[in-house]
UniProtKB/TrEMBL annotation, chain A:
<comment type="pathway">
    <text>Amino-acid biosynthesis; L-tryptophan biosynthesis; L-tryptophan from chorismate: step 5/5.</text>
</comment>
<keyword id="KW-0028">Amino-acid biosynthesis</keyword>
<keyword id="KW-0057">Aromatic amino acid biosynthesis</keyword>
<keyword id="KW-0822">Tryptophan biosynthesis</keyword>
<dbReference type="InterPro" id="IPR006654">
    <property type="entry name" value="Trp_synth_beta"/>
</dbReference>
<dbReference type="Pfam" id="PF00291">
    <property type="entry name" value="PALP"/>
</dbReference>
<feature type="domain" description="Tryptophan synthase beta chain-like PALP">
    <location>
        <begin position="63"/>
        <end position="388"/>
    </location>
</feature>
<comment type="subunit">
    <text>Tetramer of two alpha and two beta chains.</text>
</comment>
<protein>
    <recommendedName>
        <fullName>Tryptophan synthase beta chain</fullName>
        <ecNumber>4.2.1.20</ecNumber>
    </recommendedName>
</protein>
Automatic annotation (TrEMBL), chain B:
<feature type="active site" description="Proton acceptor">
    <location>
        <position position="49"/>
    </location>
</feature>
<dbReference type="GO" id="GO:0005829">
    <property type="term" value="C:cytosol"/>
</dbReference>
<comment type="similarity">
    <text>Belongs to the TrpA family.</text>
</comment>
<dbReference type="InterPro" id="IPR013785">
    <property type="entry name" value="Aldolase_TIM"/>
</dbReference>
<protein>
    <recommendedName>
        <fullName>Tryptophan synthase alpha chain</fullName>
        <ecNumber>4.2.1.20</ecNumber>
    </recommendedName>
</protein>
<dbReference type="InterPro" id="IPR018204">
    <property type="entry name" value="Trp_synthase_alpha_AS"/>
</dbReference>
<dbReference type="InterPro" id="IPR011060">
    <property type="entry name" value="RibuloseP-bd_barrel"/>
</dbReference>
<dbReference type="GO" id="GO:0004834">
    <property type="term" value="F:tryptophan synthase activity"/>
</dbReference>
<keyword id="KW-0456">Lyase</keyword>
Length: 414, 263
């Protein structure tokens, strides 16, 4: 019975807290909606019909379960641990984001909401939201930082094709944080008919728990697939973290399997020792309150929020989901940082050895795999979450590698 | 009774409505901001709402957001905001100051230390937008214990079932947000505000003042007439943004105050 009382999977408490983290730090206008959302989610969560609808859509629309792939050439190249990839980049829309969006949109439909708003960084959550809204005939408005609109233009066009209105946000530095501010402003203005579909395990309670629950399909599948392939659990699981939804989805079902080492990889940008040139909230931040929850934040001495930097738009956020902050403080998960340069090396290696063009976000996880795998025996199983595909990033990567995309096809600019 | 309670008691005795003016501390810089704040009481302002700059003001529209950015760019911090209040207090012991902002700078400063410093600076009340009653243990209860009023926002989405929870630990006055939305956006309609204020007044003995969406002296008069007073923020801040000298800003504030007091 001891284990029941010492579970890492019991949170959050009724106030939405994971230890000191989480909570409901929102304006009064939003508070009644958040309480109603929580009530409706509790009902849906216990309703087999809700999950039956989810399962059917996950199977036929998203393409779940996503494969569990043993990356043999990568394993061989690194010469150590056996490496598996959870292939969530093969989902419809190219990332893990749609797992959660389907859940929230089904909930919005149950609540009779007709207008969906979302924030997006890399554009993957925006595309997933626009996709599911198109499928169900719902109005969709996506807030996206103006900087991100520029560096993720293929996703902007995708959202428009899917019928969504994309609003570039120019306040602040025009990235994910600012997009979230403007989405909250929209919500506070259009409370009655609007559902705010948050893309990560952050925001006011119940969002961190709800998004985690929807993304946990990743970890549940991974567990079953590795049991089938290897007859046991992995030794180490690794995922990249911006807000932390793909990581929370992989980690959560493993939290009480204490023998499994859990590693979250933050975006180290140009290096965590360089002030403001990274997005590693846990490695380089301290607890604060933003966007409805208490969590580790990049902030200055006065409590003003700092703008981070990452080559990956999807990790470019000064905070992190509150449950990660808690797992960090209680020591159940480890958190490390990977630089832009290391992520780009992982990108190249993944393309060359496995024929998979990964998104820059999971490249951070892969880069850490590259660091630890060589020192481990072949009997050590690592499972990393390949949470997104790299189509959206080819322009960024081309720039970083000095390849002229506008020049004669196939010719190296450098 | 603190300065806020005393001020509303005076107003009631005189049969006048309260005029509350919001300015961002340190906008466009410390000295020019202090000049405006010092002039507010003579312009007819009954309660000063002093904005605490924050990088991510989620409940505010562009006008207040930009004011915060100007103040931060000019080196404003929580400490300097309290210093500005302290400077003002040297010349005015009667006008209540309510600090309005977001929780993170306060949390970062440390709640106990903040309350001590705020009290020493002559701050009388707090409006912290992202602290609903569900988070009262964070700052509201410690503030009340220190004798600093905690002024709560009630909104059009605060229904009858929820109203008692919103009013429970509220002191000083109740701030009714006239619209669902951000500061400086939609225009408040007196015919919609009136019944809402009546609903709140039926549930509390505290004064109710109305803010958000009041842009000119006529609206100030009309909205103040539905309640115990009104708040104007963005319309004043917009004049500071335009670079108007303090005397012109204060002349406009005086016109707004005249409107509210005519109600």
């Amino acid at each position: 019975m001891d284990d029941l009382f010492n579970s890492f999977m019991a949170g959050p408490d009724e106030d939405g807290r994971f230890g000191q983290f989480g909570g409901r730090f929102v304006s009064e206008t939003l508070m009644p909606l958040i309480l109603e959302l929580q009530r409706q989610y509790e009902i849906a969560k216990d309703d087999p019909e809700f999950w039956a609808e989810m399962d059917a859509l996950w199977a036929d629309y998203v393409g779940r379960p996503s494969p569990m792939y043993r990356a043999d050439r990568l394993t061989e190249r690194l010469g150590g641990a056996t490496i598996y990839m959870k292939r969530d980049e093969l989902n419809h829309t190219g990332a893990h984001k749609i797992n959660n969006v389907l859940g929230q949109i089904l909930l919005a439909r149950r609540m009779g909401k007709t207008r969906i708003i979302a924030e997006t960084g890399a554009g993957q959550h925006g595309v997933a939201t626009a996709t599911v809204c198109a499928k169900f005939g719902l109005q969709c408005v996506v807030y996206m930082g103006a900087t991100d609109v520029e560096r993720q233009s293929p996703n902007v066009f995708r959202m428009k094709l899917l019928g969504a209105e994309v609003i570039p946000v120019t306040s602040g530095r025009g990235t994910l944080k600012d997009a979230m501010n403007d989405a909250l402003r929209d919500w506070v203005t259009n409370v009655r008919e609007t559902f705010y579909c948050i893309g990560t395990v952050a925001g006011p309670h119940p969002y961190p728990a709800m998004v985690r629950d929807f993304q946990s399909v990743i970890g549940k599948e991974a567990k079953a697939q590795l049991m089938e392939k290897e007859g046991r659990l992995p030794d180490t699981i690794i995922a990249a973290i911006g807000g932390g939804s793909n990581a929370m989805g992989l980690f959560f079902p493993f939290l009480d399997d204490r023998e499994v080492r859990i590693i979250g990889v933050e975006a180290g940008g140009h290096g965590v020792d360089q002030k403001m040139e990274h997005c590693a909230s846990l490695t380089g931040g301290r607890p604060g309150v933003l966007h409805g929850n208490r969590t580790y934040l990049l902030q200055d001495d006065d409590g003003q929020i700092l703008e981070g930097h990452s080559i990956s738009a999807g990790l470019d956020y000064p905070g992190i989901g509150p449950e990660h902050s808690w797992l960090h403080d209680v020591g159940r998960a480890e958190y490390v940082a990977i630089t832009d340069k290391e992520a780009l090396e992982a990108f190249q290696l993944c393309c060359e050895t496995e024929g998979i063009i990964p998104a820059l976000e999971p490249c951070h996880a892969l880069a850490h795999v590259m660091k630890i795998a060589p020192g481990l025996p072949a009997s050590h199983i690592i499972c990393m979450n390949m949470c997104g595909r790299g189509d959206k990033d080819i322009f960024t990567v081309a720039r970083a590698f000095g390849f002229d995309m506008d020049g004669p096809v196939g010719r190296d600019a450098g | 009774m603190g300065r806020i309670g005393e001020r509303f008691a005076e107003l009631e005795a005189e049969g006048r409505k309260a005029f509350v003016a919001y300015v961002m501390a340190g906008d466009p810089d410390f000295d020019r901001s202090l000049e405006v704040v010092r002039g507010l009481p003579a312009a007819g302002v009954d309660v000063i709402e002093l904005g605490l700059p924050f990088t991510d003001p989620m409940a505010d529209g562009p006008t207040i957001q930009l004011a915060g950015q100007r103040a931060l760019a000019a080196g404003m911090t929580l400490k300097r905001t309290l210093a500005l209040a302290r400077e003002f207090r040297k010349g005015d012991r009667a006008t209540p100051i309510v600090l309005m902002g977001y929780y993170n700078p306060i949390f970062s400063h440390g709640v106990d230390r903040f309350l001590r410093d705020a009290k020493a600076a002559g701050i009388d009340g707090l409006i912290v937008v992202d602290l609903p009653p569900e988070e009262d243990a964070e700052l509201c209860l410690p503030a009340l214990a220190q004798g600093i009023d905690f002024i709560r926002l009630a909104t059009p989405t605060t229904d009858d079932a929820r109203l008692p929870a919103v009013l429970r630990n509220t002191s000083g006055f109740v701030y009714y947000v006239s619209i669902t939305g951000i500061t400086g956006s939609a225009v408040a309609e007196a015919r919609e505000v009136g019944p809402e204020v009546a609903r709140i007044k039926a549930a509390t003995d505290l004064p109710v003042v109305v803010g958000f969406g009041i842009r000119d002296p006529e609206a100030a008069k009309e909205i103040a007439g539905t309640a115990d007073g009104c708040v104007v923020g963005s319309a004043i801040v917009a004049r500071i943004a335009d670079g108007e000298p303090a005397e012109d800003v204060l002349a406009y504030v005086a016109a707004l105050a005249k409107g509210a007091h005519a109600a």
